[in-house]
């Protein structure tokens, strides 16, 4: 019965908007694309892993493909050359974000960096975040903290190795990532009970999952207010939980702001900007909370997912694991743990991480861009307000770029100048251009350090006699795409001390 109501309401909206759909692009050459259905467009072609579905469809229709998601025109980008057009050549046109119902509620009307619409406020707050939390200077100030947290993880794994215990590696990695992010952003670690009865990490996971669900309000104007999917109610409840948590954090900082801190956390920085009144843009308490939550969730989820995928590929390919351990032993030895100062000397580690990002970008469909005006790209007309979807998962499997694209072969990067910074469009897991991820440098420090430490300190085997080739690599799609099932493995400590 609910679906009948939804269909009727969508039909009403479609009839109301039909003249606009027919008139705006008449006689203009759109990119090629599959045949869609009335009202819903091409939603029926997308399953639980839309990045894989879009890759399959693009093989037939090309690297710049037109689709329609409800009322919203969408342009799907699936090759390095096409990505360069949208993220570099015409970046000034496509650097905004579309309306996002989840961020409207949880992100304080899209005042965050991730989903913020392009403009003076977004440019200024991104610059402040880059300078005050994500610069090399700030990253280095938290180096001792990261060392301490990683040592705590290693100690717990040593305990498990002594009794041959199977470890939930995914959960361990997620907890470490959350703790490191909390310390940098909020100044202290938090327990599950500090956020909600469901648990700290469970609430964050729910928020990310809800944000990834296609919302009628994003694709059918005027239907969002009806909350036909029940998502608005969930988002409002989550927003209330997060707001209470953030208010408590801010009040704690206000109360103890006179306390001496050797290293100021991000809350201190944001509150100083707000209280100074010197900002050249509107910046009140809601902006502070939007940015804090944004930095926390993105920092926590992306690094954890990346480490999880790297370790999974290493366990699945023991010969690569051994080769990486050989490099670690040669550079560091077996008498000490990895230090951040060692990371630049680990060439094969960097190749392993690049190859993992090629096959498992944590955001396989970069967060959508939005065209701010009509534009002609590669001879195709792209209407204003089009949603630009860059399929980095497809780009990483482009047979015109990558030989034996489905194989995990870190050696393909030997002697290559391809990096992860958005300059080489064959490999853009962090995006590129104005909307490239500002946390790339911090994320790579955490990912490289944690992978190096886990591989240097431990041998890993799968439980219950499972062979490496049997490890399931199925994905769970979301804003951050993780393993479908947690990685379970048995560590064996291998250092001499």
Per-chain topology:
Elements: H1 2-24, H2 50-61, E1 64-69, E2 72-77, H3 80-89, H4 91-94, H5 101-106, H6 120-132, H7 136-141, H8 143-162, E3 167-168, H9 169-185, H10 200-212, H11 216-219, H12 231-255, H13 266-276, H14 285-316, H15 318-332, H16 347-359, E4 369-370, E5 375-377, E6 380-382, E7 387-390, H17 392-395, H18 440-457, E8 458-461, E9 475-476, E10 482-483, E11 488-493
Parallel strand pairs: 2-7
Antiparallel strand pairs: 1-2, 3-11, 4-7, 5-6, 8-11, 9-10
Helix pairs in contact: 8-9, 9-14, 10-12, 14-16, 14-18, 15-16
Placed side by side, the strands forming the largest sheet appear as 1-2-7-4
Weakly predicted, low-confidence segments:
1-5, 19-24
Tell me the strand percentage band.
5-15%
CATH superfamily: Cytochrome P450
Order of helical and strand elements = HHEEHHHHHHEHHHHHHHHEEEEHHEEEE
- Total count of domains: 1
CATH class: Mainly Alpha
What is the annotated CATH architecture?
Orthogonal Bundle
Number of strands: 11
Mean pLDDT: 90
Ends apart, CA distance between termini: 65 Å
Largest sheet: 4 strands, mixed
What is the C-alpha radius of gyration, as a whole number of Å? 23 Å
Structural class: alpha+beta
Supply the number of helical segments: 18
Question: Which overall shape is indicated by the principal axes computed on the Cα atoms?
Answer: globular
What is the CATH T-level topology?
Cytochrome p450
Q: Which percent bin holds the helix content?
A: 40-55%
Main location: membrane
Pfam family, one: p450
Membrane topology: Single-pass membrane protein
Binding site for heme: 437
């Amino acid at each position: 019965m609910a679906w009948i109501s939804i269909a009727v309401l969508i039909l009403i909206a479609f009839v109301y908007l039909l003249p606009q759909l027919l008139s705006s692009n008449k006689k203009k050459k759109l990119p090629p694309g599959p045949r869609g259905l009335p009202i819903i467009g091409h939603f029926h072609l997308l399953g639980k892993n839309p990045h894989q579905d879009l890759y399959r469809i693009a093989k037939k229709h090309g690297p710049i493909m037109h689709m329609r998601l409800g009322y919203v025109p969408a342009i799907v980008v699936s090759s390095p050359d096409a990505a360069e057009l949208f993220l570099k050549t015409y970046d000034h046109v496509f650097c905004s974000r579309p309306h996002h119902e989840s961020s409207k509620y949880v992100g304080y009307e899209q005042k965050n960096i991730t989903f913020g619409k392009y403009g003076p406020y977004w440019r200024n707050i991104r610059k402040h975040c880059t300078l005050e939390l994500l610069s090399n200077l700030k990253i280095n100030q938290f180096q001792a903290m990261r060392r301490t947290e990683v040592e705590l993880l290693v100690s717990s794994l040593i305990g498990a190795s002594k009794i041959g215990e199977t470890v939930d590696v995914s959960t361990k990695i997620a907890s470490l990532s959350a703790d490191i992010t909390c310390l940098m952003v909020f100044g202290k670690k938090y327990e599950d009970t500090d956020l909600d009865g469901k648990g700290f990490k469970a609430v964050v996971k729910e928020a990310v999952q809800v944000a990834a669900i296609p919302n009628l309000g994003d694709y059918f104007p005027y239907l969002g207010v009806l909350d036909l999917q029940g998502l608005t109610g969930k988002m409002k409840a989550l927003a209330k939980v997060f707001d209470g948590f953030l208010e408590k954090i801010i009040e704690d900082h206000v109360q103890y702001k006179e306390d001496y801190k050797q290293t100021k956390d991000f809350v201190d920085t944001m509150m100083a900007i707000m209280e100074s009144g010197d900002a050249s843009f509107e910046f009140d308490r809601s902006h502070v909370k939007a940015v804090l939550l944004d930095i926390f969730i993105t920092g926590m989820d992306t690094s954890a997912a990346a480490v999880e995928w790297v370790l999974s590929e290493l366990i699945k390919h023991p010969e690569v694991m051994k080769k990486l351990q050989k490099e670690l032993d040669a550079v560091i030895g077996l008498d000490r743990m990895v230090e951040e100062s060692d990371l630049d000397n680990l060439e094969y580690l960097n190749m392993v991480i690049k190859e993992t990002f090629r096959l498992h970008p944590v955001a396989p469909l970069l967060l959508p861009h939005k065209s701010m005006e009509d534009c002609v790209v590669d001879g195709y007309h792209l209407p204003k307000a089009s949603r630009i979807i860059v399929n980095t998962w497809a780009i990483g499997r482009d047979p015109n770029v990558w030989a034996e694209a489905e194989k995990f072969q870190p050696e393909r990067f030997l002697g290559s100048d391809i990096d992860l910074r958005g300059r080489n469009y064959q490999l853009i897991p962090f995006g590129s251009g104005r909307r490239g991820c500002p946390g790339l440098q911090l994320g790579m420090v955490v990912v490289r350090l944690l992978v190096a430490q886990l591989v240097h300190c431990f041998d890993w085997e799968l439980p219950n006699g499972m062979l490496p080739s049997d490890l399931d690599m199925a994905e769970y799609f979301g804003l951050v795409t993780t393993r479908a099932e947690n990685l379970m493995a048995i560590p064996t400590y291998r250092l001499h001390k």
